[in-house]
Amino acid sequence: MGSRQNGGQAPRRSQSSAELEQILGNGETPDMNVVTGLVQSLMTSVQKNQEARERVGNMATKILEVESERTRLLQEYIGDTGENVDASMENNQPQHDQENNVNKSTNLENSHVTVYGDQISTEEPSENDLYQENLALKIELQRLEEYDTKATQLIGQYEVALTHLRDDARCSATEYEVAKKQLINSYKVRLDEEQRTYDELKAGHDRLLFALKGLNESLKEARNNLPQNTN
């Protein structure tokens, strides 16, 4: 996108703007073909800035897509974990009910209550199950880290591109204002020159009419002074 300006420094001037200032700075009437070419060059620069804005917009869209994918993966992971917990609780619920109810009998006639000991054994997960679960978590974490790294890189590129775009937009706006003022001033100078030329031509025309009028009067006077033919 060209060279960038640091904060606090004056915006850079394009070659077309510098040429236009040089042409108009000498006070002479500029060649309109040259001025038109320089204006077209400035418009091309504005068009390039518009294309850069579109590229930044596309990059921002990619960042949003990556963020959306990462959010979806997190929700999917959380959902899978919650489903596993719910399934485990559902599987243990019959055992819990059986633990509270099996082998508990009451002899109402003899008012004698016999409570048998719990016969439910709790099975702990095997080492292989723990290993498989840990491996799955590591793979999922690695995938999330990759998405996070990619999103961070895209965000960094977006910030750099946005900074460059702001510099270009500021420079283009400055160049446009300078070019507009210089064009307006050049047309004012040209208008003043044409007005001055018109005034000079009108004054010369008036003098010529005055001279012709005097010559006409002289011709009339000379004609009246000619001797009359008596024949």
From TrEMBL:
Domain of life assignment: Eukaryota
Region span, Disordered: 1-31, 84-103
Positions with biased composition (Polar residues): 1-19, 89-103
Protein name (database record): Uncharacterized protein
Organismal lineage: Eukaryota, Fungi, Dikarya, Ascomycota, Saccharomycotina
Keywords from the named record: Coiled coil
Stretches of the chain forming a coiled coil according to its record: 184-225
Natural source organism: Trichomonascus ciferrii
